[in-house]
Amino acid sequence: MTILNLDSAQTRLSELKEEHRALDEAIDRLSEGPFVDQIRLTRLKKRKLTLKDSIARLESQLIPDLNA
């Protein structure tokens, strides 16, 4: 991975983590209300899981190959 790609990947990773945190807060707020919109809550949770997978994939790519 080139330095430019590395910087880009790290920036993207930070953005994904921030969005993941924001979704976590939104899910908490939505869950605390007296009337819970289950459809919206489910969509937010699915998006959060998608972000988690993307974060894990990017973090895996950023780990240097020790066999090289």
UniProtKB/TrEMBL annotation:
It comes from the Bacteria. InterPro entries: DUF465, DUF465_sf. Keywords: Coiled coil. Gene3D superfamilies: 6.10.280.50. Residues 6-61 form a coiled coil. This is DUF465 domain-containing protein.
